[in-house]
Amino acid sequence: MSIPDLATLHALGAAQQPTYPDSAAVDSAVAKLRTLPPLVFAGECDELKDKIAAVSRGEAFLLQGGDCAETFAGVTADNVRNKLRVLLQMAVVLTYAASVPVVKVGRLAGQYAKPRSSDLETRDGVTLPAYRGDAVNGFDFTPEARVPDPQRLVDVYNSSAATLNLIRAFVTGGYADLRQVHTWNTDFVKESPVGQRYEAVASEIERALTFMSAIGADPVEFHRVDFHSSHEALVLEYEHAMTRIDSRTQMPYDVSGHMVWIGERTRQLDQAHVELLSHIRNPIGVKLGPTTSPDDALALASRLNPLNEPGRLTFITRFGAGRIRDGLPDLVEKVTAEGVEVAWVCDPMHGNTFEASSGYKTRRFDDVIDEVQGFFDVHRSLGTWPGGLHVELTGDDVTECVGGGEDLLEVDLGNRYESVCDPRLNRVQSLELAFLVAEMLRKA
Ligand code: PEP
Ligand code: MN
């Protein structure tokens, strides 16, 4: 089984691609990438697909989270650990409070390319190409930094390899051991009300573990977790170069990450992204915004999952708090009526972005919660399974989204606004979200 070449894909039309000034440099970066080893194994992608199949059967819950845009400078031990830590804490809360297995997927080790609503950015009368993520150009607002440089794709590979290496060490080497459940609750978060609430859960888990060990039970699941990587498959050169034929099955897999998704802006049925992802065997996601018709979703499902294989396809809905209750039911109902196998996941971030008076892009914590609640309500009323949560978050104490228990205000945004793209939940807000969603899950 082979895949279409890059020229064929580009000829189909590809939205949101960089315009590289030097095509020889592109060829050389792609040639280099093709020689580099896989970042993940095809067998691991299959394992994740099986887990997502359990999500679509209503037997598990997907937690997918991380930065809107990773940066090369952000590949530090502290930063990677902090992101993993908040995801582990959220997963513990969800698993413990709702008694549902949680499939853990990071938006990391590859999340470096961004679609933009505008090709250009203007500041103080100066207009330059928009920043498209570290995979494409530099964040600095200078003409030099904003020129797309294909060598950055090789840097994406190296940064992803370093991130994934550390993540693999953490999740199998003792950091993710359940007996560490208290130690994840460190520094600023521990003193917050939600940190105290987490302490109580951690203590209960610790008691249960002590009991298990007293009766001689010590399964391997207590000592390590399964954790998978994911990113938006956006820059065709990178994803194509990282697509390889698996020696076991002779099938193509995109070995740049376990799961990849197609964004809201690149899901045109007959164009390059849908075509490329229709050929790879990874579990894949598609973002669906509020304009998605049931026919659009059905057409995507039959293009991307013609055999209707469970676990292959995840629909990540991102309608916005104000539209989900009206818009989602028709979509879910018609897709379900056709017998389409899909995991439904809620992205409560991308439909709820607005610009604060200070000029910062932000989101209200209450809108995020309201969209998740709407998602659960719709699925409950239709008898379908609210399969997961897709969120932008960080393990640090940033000030990017307003509201939450610490009641961050718009005037606070400048204190620690570090995202190069969309606003992320900070660690306290992320944990608060996990407790609220656990509550919803318990009732689901
Ligand atoms: C994103 O996930 O960062 C993103 C750009 O989302 P969407 O494609 O849903 O707008
Ligand atoms: Mn984003």
Automatic annotation (TrEMBL):
Which residue windows are coiled coil? none
Q: Which UniProt keywords apply?
A: Amino-acid biosynthesis, Aromatic amino acid biosynthesis, Transferase
Asked if the keyword Amino-acid biosynthesis belongs to this entry, the reply reads yes
Record field: catalytic activity: D-erythrose 4-phosphate + phosphoenolpyruvate + H2O = 7-phospho-2-dehydro-3-deoxy-D-arabino-heptonate + phosphate
Q: Does the keyword Isomerase apply?
A: no
Q: What class of enzyme is it?
A: transferase
Q: Which SUPFAM superfamilies match?
A: Aldolase
**One example GO MF annotation:** 3-deoxy-7-phosphoheptulonate synthase activity
Pathway membership: Metabolic intermediate biosynthesis; chorismate biosynthesis; chorismate from D-erythrose 4-phosphate and phosphoenolpyruvate: step 1/7
Q: Which InterPro entries match?
A: Aldolase_TIM, DAHP_synth_2
Q: Which Gene3D superfamilies match?
A: Aldolase class I
What PANTHER family does UniProt report for this protein, alphabetically? Answer: PHOSPHO-2-DEHYDRO-3-DEOXYHEPTONATE ALDOLASE, PHOSPHO-2-DEHYDRO-3-DEOXYHEPTONATE ALDOLASE 1, 2
Q: Tell me the protein family, please.
A: Belongs to the class-II DAHP synthase family.
**Name this polypeptide is given:** Phospho-2-dehydro-3-deoxyheptonate aldolase
Organism listed in the record = Nocardioides oceani
